[in-house]
Amino acid sequence: RAISDPNTLLHYSSMSANKRNLKRQREPPDSAAGKQPKLAGGRARESGWLLKEVTEHRRAPQSTAGMRVTQKATPNTQKIKQGSDGVLYCSASQPGVRGPLVVLDCALVLFVLQIQDSTFFVADNRQYAFMLKRLREVAKECKSLDIQFHLLSGEPGQNLWIETVKKHLPADVPFIQVDAHNVVPCWEASEKLEYGARTIRGKITKLLPEFLTEIPLVDTHPHSASRAAEPVDWEEVLSSLEVDCCVGEVDWAQPGSCGGMAMLESFIEQRLRLFATHRNNPNCDALSHLSPWIHTGQLSAQRVVKQVKREKNASESVASFIEELVVRRELADSFCFYNHNYDNISGERFIALLNRQLVLEGKMHGFLRMYWAKKILEWTASPEEALSIAIYLNDRLSLDGCDPNGYVGCMWSVCGIHDQGWAERPIFGKIRFMNYAGCKRKFDVAQFERKYAAIKENSNKDTKKPSFNN
User: Fold this and answer.
1) Rounded CA gap, 88 and 101, in Å?
2) Burial of 69 by CB count in 10 Å (0-12 exposed, 13-18 middle, 19+ buried)?
3) Most exposed of 13, 29, 141, 304 (fewest Cβ within 10 Å)?
4) Cα–Cα distance measured from residue 433 to residue 424, given in angstroms and rounded to the nearest whole number
5) Residue 425 carries which DSSP code?
6) Is 60 helix (H, G, I), strand (E, B) or coil?
7) How many separate domains does the chain show?
8) Do the domain assignments include residue 155?
9) Whole domain around residue 352: which residue ranges?
């Protein structure tokens, strides 16, 4: 249920424009170089006011009018059939019961399932401790609301586990996906991979009034489960993780929603009005520092935006901050949502397999060698460096190296020799452009990748010295 807008929210009393200008003139010119700029005067609010305000709002009478749920359902069914045993809320990355959950019109037991990947290869003790301490808080909140909390440790799977779940669900069981990470869900903001901020900004801005609603309250659940969830031994969970323990926890970021609220409060009180002009100065503390809590779902971006927009004396910084938190951040989420190569240079795995073919077989397909050389051009600092690397690797590793055909092939790819000029573009200039998508249009790239991915990387380690008896 939605939370009413506060009627008693206190704002800083601002100085007059003349006084602010005089104050700026008195400030030393080196403030941008390292000295923390002084804030305009104002009546400070009592420490802890934000958490107190949110707590009071949760107790106030509320309604669901105007609330927009950030969800999408499977096409087979959106209704829950009679006789169902319950609703499972499965969270893989956004732990919490105070954020935007799915609103369901049903009288069923609610179960919360958190999947904790204990094998994620880049995570360390610092990250897992931060997440698990929040999860312990979530478990307590669930218990107080009569919601069953279950923790599963393990590996959800290398592929999209969402698609796996949908595939194995019976046709009459609805599956609803919620984008609790963004204000405007990825699939609503855009239906395609966007070129940049300028192409998505208008789309998000248009939808903000529809989605930037108050966060629904989670009431004590009226339907009890017949069997309680097993209690979680949090110390055992933390100690059993296969993570890098050399990276320790940090003191400045306290995990949990209370820690996130405290950081948001300090940002509003101390740093927000500096954000527009000083956020790029590392010597000036003008950032929000909220990313750890927002990233792990311990603090909702929607709540942050709603709260920051209430500050009337820092309009320039508010607009600048929302541009970063909403437009730029959701552009990044949209990129990862629509681009399966979001964590590597487009086709980088494909290039790695081309290198494997060259190393293991001493030969590379002619078309692929052209593409390979063009990627070297794309990834190096100059055409001269790209040509030098391409010729060196081709001459050294290919059985047909040190051949005029090889030299001209590299020159065609990097310098455009024997080719016509094409429409000018960044990096390539007027050199013919080739990309991963073009390869996929010409042949079955996946088949090639499967073939060379299956070849053991060490299959050529037992090579012998040249001998006439080989």
Assistant:
1) 12
2) middle
3) 29
4) 10
5) B
6) coil
7) 1
8) no
9) 348-453
